[in-house]
Amino acid sequence: MSRRPHFLLALAALGALSAAAVWLAAFVLPGGRELDAAALQAFSGVARAPLTPSIHGIAVLANPLPFAIAGALLVGLALLRRRVIMAALVPVILVVANGCTQVLKPVLADLRIIDVAGVDRVYPGSWPSGHATASMSLALCLVLVVGPRLRPLAALLGAGYAIGVGYALVALGWHLPSDVLGGYLVAASFTLLGAAALAALETRRPVPAARRTGPPAVVLWPVLAASVAALVPLVALALLVRNPELAIGTLRHAELLLAACGIGVLGLALTAGFALVLRR
Question: Which of 166, 167, 198 is nearest to 185 (CA)?
Fold first, then answer.
């Protein structure tokens, strides 16, 4: 764990400011609402009848019950590593981050009526997304509780989970892209606050030395980067082969590509960046 709690606090503040910037861009800046709505309309075309059950199955992975089970497993993992303070802080991070999202929803409620597949859907208080906050907070806490040499893998798995949930939310029309981005940033802000508290508290209590097993992290990070670089074209190729009309239609929607890249890049940047700033 980094022994620089002030640096982690600064990153948490940056996350909060970034969340505020997303809200301003989506609700206040000229064209923001229109771009958000256009991305949702284009994205919702992905959830066609054959794919809808699978996409729905991904979205509900951030429901309260899976969230609680995953949180309990993370606490157990921290205890296995004999990180008692970490085990105590993980549920605090998860509860406070997601509680803040539920408070922000009504406080920042703003009526948005958007035509999705010919049906007017009302989004009165959907920013930030609770499911996006839940998935990203779990992903970041996974990065927090694993050992240093597993953090590259945890960052990749956590990003895949959070990004998958984020895409599913927009594809199903449950949330706009800005809702997902806001949820990610709220989760990141509170996880960084928790990491700062952990770094400060553990300076007063010795932490068991980590066992040096497996390849060093300096080797795993290039492997992670290569894996991501190989995965993206493979997924794109699979989509093109299985559903040419969907792939071609996607290329015609700049808003969809912008939203997809925004959610994907932010999701991976948050988990990978968090793994990099942690020391042990």
Answer: 166
The phi and psi torsions of 147 (rounded to 5 degrees) equal: -70, 160
Return the number of other C-beta atoms located less than 10 Å from residue 163's C-beta: 24
Among candidates 268, 1, 7, 274, which has minimal Cα distance to 141?
274
Q: What is the pLDDT of residues 1-11, one digit of tens each?
A: 545 789 999 99
Contacts (Cβ under 8 Å, ≥6 apart) of 263: 163, 166, 167, 170, 177, 180, 181, 184
User: For residue 152, is the peptide bond before it cis, meaning its omega torsion is within 30 degrees of 0?
Assistant: no
Answer for the pair 159, 46: CB distance below 8 angstroms, yes or no: no
Closest by CA position to 97, among listed 210, 205, 193: 193
CB 70 within 8 A of CB 93: no
Model's pTM, two decimal places?
A: 0.84
Residue 215 · residue 76 · CB < 8 Å: no
- Structural domain harbouring 188: 5-207+216-277
Question: Do residues 191 and 97 lie in contact, with contact meaning Cβ atoms separated by under 8 Å?
Answer: yes
> What is the SS3 string spanning 109-175?
CCCCEEEECCEEEECCCCCCCHHHHHHHHHHHHHHHHCCHHHHHHHHHHHHHHHHHHHHHHHHCCCC
Kindly state the average pLDDT of the residues 69-76.
Answer: 97
Instruction: Decide: helix, strand or coil at residue 241.
Output: helix
Give the tokens for residue 252.
């015609």
Phi, psi of 173 (to 5 degrees): 80, 15
pLDDT per residue as tens digits for the range 105-144 = 999 988 888 877 666 777 888 999 999 999 999 999 999 9
Contact between 33 and 112 (Cβ < 8 Å): yes
How far is the C-alpha of 188 from the C-alpha of 224, rounded, in Å?
Answer: 21
Question: How many structural domains comprise the chain?
Answer: 1
